[in-house]
Amino acid sequence: MTDFEILGPYLIALMMSLGALCVFVWGVLSGAFNGADEAALRFFRTEMDHDRASHTETAGE
pTM for the complete prediction? Predict the structure, then answer.
């Protein structure tokens, strides 16, 4: 019983880590991360357009 109390949390943490690694590898292989950069760039461009528009509005006043 004492062995489980000492090793149990480590074994559970190891199993959870392996599970997370498997989910990550599955996501990469299934293409779940494709297009993530495009969405970030689209957001960045939209923010830059809004910043330019707000600066031209304040400069025109």
Answer: 0.56
